[in-house]
Design brief:
Number of domains: 1
CATH topology: Nucleotidyltransferase, domain 5
Number of helices: 11
CATH class: Alpha Beta
Strand content: 15-25%
Radius of gyration: 20 Å
CATH superfamily: Ribonuclease H-like superfamily/Ribonuclease H
Largest sheet: 7 strands, mixed
Shape: globular
Order of helices and strands: EEHHHHHEHHEHEEEHHH
CATH architecture: 2-Layer Sandwich
Helix content: 25-40%
Length: 364
């Protein structure tokens, strides 16, 4: 069965807090996929959030009666806040474990492989992460180092769930499973990469442009996920990756080749709406599509929700840390204008704690 991967980010614009990239992997029957097809069919109907039984942005705000609600994270967050993000992301992890995970249970030390569905025949389900750090270790593996080193997250390890009741998460997972007969998609992997200011600034200095930083980190995350799923599908089964455009970029061939260790990806189309490439990786045919508004697709939307949820957790810890040190300090979402206010109002506290500006403020 072909593999379909969706990639998206949260926090590209702010100066404070992490940039978070996430990717979700799905299997679908070959006859439902558009690999190698002409442009009008590169987005099969079953991938679209509006048509999928898994995609219900308005329902995501409806609490315990809601289904998974996979849609653009901005819409889901606007309608239902952190609870809606949390309900869907933790339900996804529950589905990956094959049965109810128990949202308040403690998870064992996480590695990225834990976020990949158990092999057929497996019956034991791992409990869901109990804290934000556990969740990040599970989804991000080696990339979780920045989370664990970041001062606020190290001191304030938020217990999970934050806003959604465990019963709501379990119900969303149950409704997800019930929808399995209505969609050919099967979730098989979910991973993330948070990039905190210190690493962000180092990578920005190396790459020069923020869009290059985003592209490199996104592609590396996808190829890492592909390598970890290598034994889950046959060598000749195709792989299709859907990704949002990066900073208005239209050409990605060189970046794809570099991230794939030199494998060549031939451009099929490069335009403002769609940049499309074909090639082979690890003997498998690969098609990569960079789309405008790619979050309208289920695989990209779940990646978007996961990235947004992790960033919201990081920003909650960040704000709690600094507001506890500066009386009267208002919390921030980290976007440029308000971020400068926050930067100025925390200056004395940061100096007292010897927090370097490079570990606090993203240069772009």
């Amino acid at each position: 069965m072909p593999l379909i991967v969706g990639v998206d980010e949260a926090g590209y614009g702010p100066n404070l807090g992490p940039l978070v990239i996430a990717a979700s992997a799905w299997r679908a029957p070959l006859d439902h996929c558009a690999h190698g097809a002409d442009v009008p069919t590169v987005m099969p109907a079953f991938l679209c959030c509006e048509r999928s039984p898994l995609g219900n942005a308005r329902g995501a705000a409806a609490g315990a009666a809601a289904g998974p609600g996979i849609a653009d994270s901005k819409v889901v967050y606007r309608n239902g806040g952190v609870a809606a993000l949390e309900r869907t992301v933790l339900a996804a992890l529950t589905v990956l474990r094959g049965e109810s995970g128990g949202a308040s249970a403690e998870a064992p030390p996480g590695v990225m492989d834990k976020a990949i569905a158990p092999k057929p025949g497996a019956t034991a389900a791992s409990p869901l992460p109990r804290t934000a750090a556990m969740l990040c270790r599970e989804l991000a593996d080696c990339h979780a180092a920045g989370w664990l080193e970041e001062r606020a997250n190290r001191e304030i390890d938020l217990p999970l769930p934050r806003a959604a009741a465990p019963a709501e998460i379990d119900r969303a997972a149950a409704l997800w499973r019930a929808a399995a007969d209505e969609t050919p998609l099967e979730l098989v992997g979910l991973v993330a990469r948070p990039v905190f200011p210190a690493e962000f600034n180092r990578l920005l200095e190396q790459r020069g442009r923020k869009s290059d930083l985003l592209s490199q980190a996104s592609l590396e995350l996808v190829f890492d996920l592909i390598d970890r799923l290598r034994n889950r599908w046959e060598p000749d089964e195709p792989l299709t990756i859907y990704c949002d455009k990066h900073g208005g970029r239209n050409r990605y061939s060189a970046l794809l080749s570099a991230a794939a260790g030199g494998a060549l990806f031939a451009p099929i189309e490069e335009s403002r709406e769609l940049s499309r490439y074909r090639g082979r990786y690890d003997r498998r045919p690969v098609e990569w599509l960079f789309l405008s508004k790619a979050e309208r697709l289920v695989p990209v939307a779940l990646a978007s929700l996961t990235a947004k949820y992790l960033r919201e957790l990081a920003m909650e810890a960040f704000n709690r840390y600094w507001t506890s040190r500066v009386p009267g300090l208002r919390a921030t979402a980290g976007y440029p204008v308000d971020a400068r206010r926050f930067l100025a109002e925390t200056e004395a506290a940061r100096r007292a704690e010897a927090t370097p500006i490079s570990a606090f403020w993203r240069n772009k």
